[in-house]
Specification:
The protein has about 190 residues and is of the alpha+beta class. The protein has 2 domains: about 100 residues, Alpha-Beta Plaits (2-Layer Sandwich); about 90 residues, Alpha-L RNA-binding motif (Alpha-Beta Plaits, 2-Layer Sandwich), CATH 3.30.70. It is about 20% helix and about 25% strand. The protein contains 4 helices and 9 strands. Strands 1, 2, 3, 4, 5, 6, 7, 8 and 9 form a 9-stranded mixed sheet that branches. The longest helix has 10 residues. The model has no long low-confidence stretch (mean pLDDT about 90).
Length: about 190
């Protein structure tokens, strides 16, 4: 039976097990041998990271060809209107690639959200807002590049869900192993579309 672990990656933690001087890594939080991250999160991003010891499942989760939705909650600088949301949703030309269409909507600040350490900079003259962005791809720093291109730089980026799994109920630095029934659901949800 494959192991699947959901981990709420804190800000500043590197998505690797190899130790790095003066930088926290997965090794500092996950004591389960033989599991690897299915995808990555930048050090300055937070939220759900799925780990497994099943290489096939790991590839299916991470590979965009399997169309597994990744949901992000994103705090941006400014107040994007309908036209900015349409730009983000229809796909953004980032120069080296054009993003696929995605689902984007304004949301209220998430209830019960843990504080980020260090906190986001606060600027009295610049309002912020929250977006929920659902992607089926995940290129390097894609969400940050998309919001910046639309004129609304990302201040905080939290991956809230990967396919059927969410970070709900997990405090930063905490993890939980899934039961077999959810593992079977994951294998079904990761089939090519």
């Amino acid at each position: 039976m494959s192991r699947i672990i959901l981990f709420n990656k804190p800000y500043g933690v590197l998505t690797q097990f190899t130790s790095v001087v003066d930088r926290p890594t997965l090794k500092d939080y996950i004591a389960v041998p033989g599991v690897y991250a299915a995808g990555r999160l930048d050090a300055d991003s937070e939220g759900l990271l799925v780990l497994t010891d099943d290489g096939r499942l790991q590839r299916r989760i991470a590979d965009p060809r399997h169309k597994l939705t990744k949901t992000y909650r994103v705090q941006v600088e400014g107040l994007p209107g309908p036209s900015a949301l349409d730009v983000l949703a229809s796909g953004v030309d980032l120069g080296d690639f054009h993003t696929l269409p995605c689902r984007v909507r304004l949301i209220p600040e998430p209830v019960g959200l843990w504080p980020r350490i260090p906190p986001i900079r606060y600027r009295k003259e610049k309002p912020t807002s929250w977006l929920e962005i659902e992607l089926r791809e995940g290129k390097n720093r894609q969400v940050r590049r998309m919001t910046a291109k639309a004129g609304f730089p990302t201040l905080r980026l939290i991956r809230w869900a990967v396919g059927p799994w969410t970070v709900a109920g997990l405090e930063p630095g905490m993890s939980r192993e899934l039961a077999e029934t959810l593992e079977k659901k994951a294998a079904n949800d990761c089939q090519p579309a």
